[in-house]
Amino acid sequence: MSDIARLAGVSEATVSRSLKDSPLINEKTRKRVQDIAREHNYKINAAARNFRLKKTHTLAVVLLVDREWGHEVSDAFLMVLLGSIADEAANQGYDLLLSTNPHDVADLGAYYLESKRADGLIIIGQGRNDPRLDRLAASKAPFIVWGAEVEDHDYFTVGSDNRQGGYDATKLLIENGRKHIAFLGDIRHPEMEHRWEGYRRALEEAGIPYDESLVIPTDFSRSDGYEKADKVLLGEHRECDAVFCVSDNIALGVMKRLSEAGIRVPEDIAIVGFDDNPLAVFSTPGLTTIKQDIREGGKLLVQNLVKVLNGEAIGHVTMPTELIVRQSCGRG
Amino acid sequence: MSDIARLAGVSEATVSRSLKDSPLINEKTRKRVQDIAREHNYKINAAARNFRLKKTHTLAVVLLVDREWGHEVSDAFLMVLLGSIADEAANQGYDLLLSTNPHDVADLGAYYLESKRADGLIIIGQGRNDPRLDRLAASKAPFIVWGAEVEDHDYFTVGSDNRQGGYDATKLLIENGRKHIAFLGDIRHPEMEHRWEGYRRALEEAGIPYDESLVIPTDFSRSDGYEKADKVLLGEHRECDAVFCVSDNIALGVMKRLSEAGIRVPEDIAIVGFDDNPLAVFSTPGLTTIKQDIREGGKLLVQNLVKVLNGEAIGHVTMPTELIVRQSCGRG
DNA sequence: ATTTGGGTTGCAATCGATTGCATTCGAGCG
DNA sequence: CGCTCGAATGCAATCGATTGCAACCCAAAT
Asked: Which domains does chain A have, with CATH numbers?
């Protein structure tokens, strides 16, 4: 910058102000400085600037997905969400720091926030109600979570209306004449718990007794859907005529196993998934599912976090879901 | 830091050295300082440190995937690669900056490198031989590319042995008795071009004449596989008895269309894909494919870039591919 | 007792951009 | 002509950690 100052015959202060389009500087000078800077391909040193301003203009995204837990990181869902977050962050003038395995289990916020690597945190996934999030919240760290709004937690979330989604999915299956509807998913996840609540409500409204043995803990991965289908639908619960899976991945695994076993979908067993994974269209039969507007979700995560950083108040966001009817649910 | 210095009754210099475990400092002092720092939950200010050291300890990942171009960012491939890059970067003590839409088309390196936001760049995808990469190389920027080694380019890459993969896929189809093998992919992409070269070599070795009209430009997306299947296999080229798709996504789209049309896979048309997308297992029939070791690729990208940053010399990396035989190719 | 020297520690400059305050300059006005 | 005022610009401090060099202390050697 001092070079530019010398070349332009002004002080560094003037250069700094010129490049910021400060009205303090005479327009002619400003133009001249800007031209010279451009000519010499001068780029302001972000490190120095951030240091001085005590602002990093950076958001950190933490993928809090426990791999042992089976949530394969390859999930299309994540990529879309991440892409959308990245786009919106760029829009808002923030860089994006990415972390898949939280540096140390100890304190999520420490690494990024206290060491001034990022201004705020976006956390993808609450896991099974991870207590670390509560500790983060207690420390007043600026962060936001993709997931479900949970009563006694002191942080804000953006997520889909999982209760409604679960309800819609189950209701559709009931309307299509199904009576024995299994639920595949792990309700220790807050989001899944909400879907399960919707599932129960739909059953109740239809007067179908709730059978706990039809709620099968299943992790996000496809292979687990496959295995649970094997164990449950082909084993203990042959009476099942429908399945609501908390993710399309699970549903695709189920469909694979059923197809191998010669069980027809949807004739013998109807299936509804969740997410509207891009691949849901291409399965055979097409997978009926609950669509989440993930792109919008990513955008809102960033926008709300930026609000927090600016000291504005925010609230939880619950986005509507949409029922996408294809063939797997047993009727159009 | 000055607080810690005061509390410990030493100078900031001593604190700084202590926290670095510098042997210059007496062991007792060092311990004491470290304890005090920990007690007070002091975290070194990364912004100041990076500024002083002119090192960001950060790598930037640029997803150079043209969306209009149909390569859906949701591709599982990308997520796995990204995850692996993130893990290895953490291993090596680097943070990861993520960018999906290059800030300005102008100069990729400028934003991240010249402005000192990152020490090096990892570029995912060469696009259709993007000239920006050559400009980056000309400017001596430290970066590395996921893609194919191309003759007259002055940058290093990490990628799969696409020629061998294309060859293996095609050869398998030939061995399974297929004569009219279509190629679905856009060979303006260097990686796809290599796969196509492998395809040609396999045909040649088998004495099957190369038919250019069987090479169908198809973008990465699933929907395009679907459409091309409609147009080509069900239209102009009913003689086709096999298809080699440059990605599993394309292959899944093709399978969907064929299944709708009542054409049997693999009996009527055999299919081989590329990538070993996690979903390839779950399609019906299981998709035979060429597996890329993407996790290893991500790791190597980071390791090689770090080498560059340390002034070490590196070379291109071509990783072996693996033929994964399932059912879609027409024989086990 | 003075010198030498190794082991510790502190001083102070430095990185590059920003910004409050002071300064300069010129125009306008009494 | 002198004074005021506002616009434009410069001065210099500042952010927090790092590091070359100087300074210091104490023990051993002379």
From this structure: 2-44 (1.10.260.40), 58-159+294-319 (3.40.50.2300), 162-293 (3.40.50.2300)
Query: From start to end of chain B, where are the E strands?
Result: 58-63, 95-99, 120-124, 143-146, 157-160, 181-184, 215-216, 242-245, 270-275, 288-291, 317-319, 322-324
Smallest CA–CA distance, residue A105 to chain B, in Å, is 14
Tokens of A316: 């939880």
- What are the beta bridge partners of residue B143? B121
B-chain residues near A19 (CB < 8 A): none
Specify the pairing of strand B58-63 against strand B120-124: parallel
Share in percent of chain A as helix, strand, coil (round to 5): 45, 15, 40
Q: Which amino acid is at B198?
A: G
A300 vs A295: CA distance, rounded Å? 9
Which residues make Cβ contacts (< 8 Å) with residue A68, sequence separation at least 6?
A: none
End-to-end CA distance of chain A: 66
Point out the nucleotide closest to A116 (alpha carbon to C1′): D16
Say yes or no for a CB contact (<8 Å) between A117 and B95.
yes
> What's the pLDDT tens digit per position in B81-125?
999 999 999 999 999 999 886 655 457 777 899 999 999 999 998
Q: Which parts of B113-261 fold into alpha helices (H)? A: 131-138, 162-175, 190-205, 222-228, 248-260
Partner residues linked to B122 by β-bridges: B61, B144
Query: Which pLDDT tens digit goes with each residue over B34-59?
Result: 999 999 999 999 999 999 999 999 99
pTM over 0.90: yes
A286, HSE (Cβ side, Cα atoms, 13 Å): 15
- For A248-300, what is each residue's pLDDT tens digit? 999 999 999 999 999 999 999 999 999 998 888 888 899 999 999 999 999 99
Q: How many CB atoms lie within 10 A of CB B271?
A: 33
